[in-house]
Amino acid sequence: MSDESKRREETAGLMEFSVENLVPFGPIHPALKEPEYFKLILEGEKIVQVIPRIGYVHRGLEKAAESRPWVQNMYMFERTCGICSFVHSLCYGQAVEGLTIYEVPRRAKYIRLIIAELERIHSHLLWVGLMGHWAGFETLFMWVWNDRELILDLVEAISGNRVHKSMNAFCGVRRDMPENMEDRIVERMKFITDRAHYYREIIDTEETMLARTENVGNKINQETAQKLCAVGPMARYVGLRQDVRLTDPYAAYDEVPFDIVTRTEGDVRALLRLRLDELVVSANMISYAVKHIPEGPIRVKIAPIIPAGEHSSHCEAPRGEIFYYVKSTGGRTPDRVKSRQPTMANIPAALELLKGQTLADVPMVLTAIDPCFGCMDRMSFLETESQKQWTWSGEQLRQYGIKHYFPDRFNSPNPTKFKAVP
Amino acid sequence: MPHRRPGAAIPEMFRQMLEKPSTEAYPYKPIQLPDRFRGKLDIDPEKCTGCQVCAVVCPAGVITMIDKGTRKVGDRELPVRRPLFDLSTCIFCGECVDNCAFRALEMTKLFELATPNKADLIMRKAVEK
């Protein structure tokens, strides 16, 4: 590659800015737990534009799903994320259940709700700890992660594993709630509620947290958030009442009383307050659910062959709305699975949040959206010579794959013109 | 508007200092595991019939069926197969255990599987029977 084209690749999409103003952030950066690259264009200390380059941890799960039986995909999609693992298998499972004629038993729905909410609590606690870590308040990080262990112990007692619960099955769950767990769960939820109130007090009064979170983050209004398709806490913290649990209830969310939390301040501290308030909501939901869980079967066994058709499902993960689409041709493996993770939808809003902020606040703001880059990475194409970017449809990608793996069938050499850039 | 209180977290700091440590003395003391803990996979070779269901459902490709000759059922020759486990790729989901109709498989509470030699994690129990 010539020097000129190398330079062009480095500055792809930045031709209107001089390279002197560019600060590369990532892909290997202490503030990011997963590799992702952000090109920050600065004017002095202030950020004027951010250009992301995603795809460093693209794993090709959707393609891998096409060659595996339905039930194996359940465990593969559970491993999409290492934090909110259950909700991925739940969403995929619901999409597949939509193709069958069976109903999920009510008790299974309650167990799904309990596990999903426990997962939300542990994910939010993990995030609050990380915020303390980036604010320089390491003690908060230690406290919060200590409390998180109590939740993980509960999850381990119910499911047998701390992170990858493997609780879901098609049309039900694999394990029943253990006996005599009710009191223990209610007691822990009361403890978590108390701790959430205490952390609310800390972030409202403690100097370190105030200095690092108050008025940090470019304030966006509801209209902008809607235009940028923000989901989950990123939509709720500007006042949008957007939550799949409320708007399109799944599992047992239509039977458990709850109300979602919204805030209007529009800075990073509002996100902290919102997520701490959500802890209380989740804890109350779990306490209600374990007391009112109905008796009955937990699973309907279904055949390994799923009827032909297509179906989609969406769920509220701790980071926002996730979406799964499945298409079956009546075989042992899916024809197509499409998944959309919340971080993917929140990236445009995060870029907007970064504008006008100082370079020192970038870790705080990027952590504030609760990013999970490993979940969301996608592939796009970039022709390095002409700076051209484009996307392909599924069919085009399939044709490219056939051409790549079976070049002789197309009577042409491997297409080398395109360089696939993640 | 919040009122700033320098040192708002100090009472909590003292409380946490006087509490017993959250960490456990593992490996000097045994660790408490819940009843449902999913650890290393184990097989009872006496119960295994070689039906292959575990190999079909395994999402991680841990189980390979090995041919062990044939057996005579009536006047038919049927192949005899036994599972070989490569536990280095096991994801501990327990799907094989759930699907084993003969209850030959179980998840033990062993979790110390680290080894410098990957071959140690290949379980030949059922094949060598």
Radius of gyration computed on alpha carbons of chain A: 23 Å
Total count of strands of chain B: 5
Strand content of chain A: 5-15%
Order of SSEs of chain A: HEEEHHHHHEEHHHHHHEEEHHHEEHE
- Low-pLDDT parts of chain B are none
What is the CATH class name of chain B? Alpha Beta
CATH architecture group name of chain B: 2-Layer Sandwich
SS-based structural class of chain B? alpha+beta
- Major sheet of chain A: size, sense and barrel closure? 3 strands, antiparallel
Q: What is the CA–CA distance across the termini of chain B?
A: 74 Å
CATH fold assignment of the domain at 61-342 in chain A: Cytochrome-c3 Hydrogenase, chain B
What fold name goes in the CATH topology slot of chain B?
Answer: Alpha-Beta Plaits
The proportion of residues in beta strands of chain B is 15-25%
Task: Explain this structure.
- The complex is a heterodimer of chains A (422) and B (129).
- In chain A, 46% of the residues lie in helices and 13% in strands.
- Chain A has 16 helices and eleven strands.
- In chain A, helix 3 runs antiparallel to helix 4, helix 4 runs antiparallel to helix 5 and helix 6 (138-159) packs antiparallel against helix 7 (182-205).
- In chain A, the strands form four sheets. A three-stranded antiparallel β-sheet of chain A has the order 1-2-3. A three-stranded antiparallel β-sheet of chain A has the order 6-7-8. Chain A has a three-stranded antiparallel β-sheet with strand order 10-9-11, with no helix packed on it.
- The radius of gyration of chain A is 23 Å and the shape is flat.
- With 422 residues, chain A is of the alpha+beta class.
- Chain A starts with a helix and ends with a strand.
- Chain A has a domain at 61-342: Cytochrome-c3 Hydrogenase, chain B (Orthogonal Bundle).
- Chain B is an alpha+beta fold and 129 residues long.
- Chain B has one domain: Alpha-Beta Plaits, CATH 3.30.70.3270.
- Chain B contains four helices and five strands, in the order αβαββαββα.
- Chain B has helices spanning 10-18, 53-57, 95-99, 125-128, and strands at 41-43, 63-73, 76-86, 105-107, 122-123.
- In chain B, the strands form two sheets. Chain B has a three-stranded antiparallel β-sheet.
- In chain B, a hairpin with a 2-residue loop joins strand 2 and strand 3 (76-86).
- Chain B is elongated and about 85 Å long.
- The chains are: A alpha+beta (422), B alpha+beta (129).
